[in-house]
From TrEMBL:
GO MF annotation list: heme binding; iron ion binding; monooxygenase activity; oxidoreductase activity, acting on paired donors, with incorporation or reduction of molecular oxygen
Gene3D superfamilies in alphabetical order: Cytochrome P450
One Pfam family named in its UniProt record: p450
UniProt KW keywords: Heme, Iron, Metal-binding, Monooxygenase, Oxidoreductase
SUPFAM superfamilies reported for this sequence: Cytochrome P450 (SSF48264)
Listed name of the protein: Cytochrome P450 hydroxylase
Statement: the UniProt record of this protein carries the keyword Nucleotide-binding: no
Family of this protein: Belongs to the cytochrome P450 family.
Protein origin, superkingdom: Bacteria
Organism per entry: Roseivivax marinus
Length: 414
């Protein structure tokens, strides 16, 4: 493999994950690695060594591999998540979410919820999601200029949608939003994660027990019913599944919406083009997803046995991180990869939702929420502008995003 430092010796890139200059820009090492060493050993800040995939082909090879494992409970799984090491009554680590399962077990649990997130199912909810976006933006505007778009719109909008889908109250949605920010946010102290995770699990556990006693017309009730109907109800598994829908769905979508708005505010020509031709919205949504790729390093794997991946012989226990953000800037796949291009058609080949059997279950809902948010913003955007530099959460955590986005305006479209 070609050394990227030009020294002719083995090279191990250190200090991973590297900080993004901005949430919509990639860490500088990605481009060099992608060109010269697309599947290469790196070292986490903790000292843990992993293999990092950065090219589109390398990332697809990792995420579609049947010899690699997604089992977070494997002792050599990369230390991507700062999660508490809980154990069940038999001393076994818990199943954290669908993303932490393999093979038949993954397929079994995914089938219990997959139908809820089909494109046809989400399409039936589009109108009320758009109304929710408009209503939340009205609240944001009424609060006055300047205002923080992240806390005033993106997070509460996404939290309300996910809460309504699951059947939680507005107050529970706000509480979950704060907890999920601690669990997956890049800017928080990892020592707070166990407490936040425990509180989220407690809230969801209470909701599950309520649905078991008195089912409602919500997703959580339907999930519980399917497991009980098959006589395979597992409290911890259902709890982990529901909690992951809240944390992963909320954080990724809220950050992507905030970055999307930041991109449009900073590119008034693109904003004007979208305002003049709403049919370009699908293109804009895909470009925002591709360029932000907020869940960069969560697509991790481990080699349970010696194997060969992307032409590299890996020993048992090798950890791998597939950087979807790096792959989404691959010059061999995307023309002008660092630019938002609305004239190329919707570039849906991006890997912002992952690839293979673990491709994001909620991708259609996320696209719908992103589109609804963008449409609502464009309808009233007027002279929106940044009132100060945005606050980044691009320090190499699980999620890259915008922690604060202060915008101001003096006039808006009617």
């Amino acid at each position: 493999m070609t050394p990227i430092n030009g020294s002719g010796s083995d090279f191990c890139a250190e200090g991973f994950p590297w900080a993004r200059p901005r949430p919509d820009l990639m860490p500088p090492p990605y481009a060099d690695l992608r060109k010269n060493a697309p599947f290469y050993p790196c070292t986490f800040n903790s000292g843990e060594k992993v293999w990092l995939a950065t090219s589109y082909e390398a990332v697809v090879a990792v995420l579609s591999s049947r010899v690699l494992s997604s089992e977070h409970s494997h002792p050599d799984f990369p230390g991507v998540f700062a999660l508490p090491q809980r154990r069940d009554s038999q001393g076994r680590p818990p199943k954290l979410s669908l993303s932490a399962l393999d093979g038949a077990e993954h397929r079994f649990h995914r089938q219990r919820v997959a139908g809820e997130f089909r494109l046809s199912a989400i399409a039936r909810e589009t109108d009320w999601i758009k109304r929710m976006a408009t209503n939340q933006l009205d609240r944001f505007i009424r609060a006055g200029s300047p205002n923080d778009f992240v806390k005033g719109f993106a997070r509460p909008f996404v939290a309300r949608i996910i809460a309504m889908v699951l059947g939680l109250t507005v107050e529970e949605a706000a509480y979950c939003a704060g907890l999920s920010d601690v669990i997956l946010g890049a800017g928080h102290n990892p020592q707070l994660v166990p407490l936040a995770s425990s509180r989220l699990r407690a809230l969801v556990a209470t909701a599950i027990e309520e649905r078991r006693r008195r089912p409602r017309h919500d997703l959580l009730s339907r999930i519980v019913h399917r497991y009980e109907a098959d006589e395979v109800f597992d409290q911890d598994q259902v709890l982990a599944l529901a909690a992951s829908l809240i944390t992963a769905g909320l954080e990724t979508t809220a950050h992507t919406i905030s970055i999307g708005i930041l991109m449009l505010v900073r590119a008034p020509d693109q904003l004007e083009e979208l305002s003049a031709d709403p049919s370009l919205m699908a293109n804009a949504v895909e470009e925002i997803l591709r360029l932000s790729s907020v869940a960069d390093i969560v697509t991790a794997r481990v080699a349970p046995h010696p194997c060969c991946v992307f032409g590299v012989e890996l020993p048992a226990g090798a950890g791998i991180v597939a950087s979807t953000a790096a792959a989404n800037r691959d010059e061999n796949i995307f023309t002008d990869p660092d630019e938002m291009r609305l004239d190329h058609g919707a570039r849906r080949a991006h890997l912002a939702f992952g690839y293979g059997p673990h491709k994001c279950l909620g991708r259609h809902l996320a696209r719908t929420m992103l589109s609804a948010a963008m449409e609502a913003f464009i309808d009233i955007s007027g002279d929106f502008r940044l009132s100060e530099d945005p606050g980044w959460t691009a320090s190499g955590g699980v999620m890259a995003g915008v922690s604060e986005l202060m915008v101001e305006w003096s006039s808006l479209k009617s």
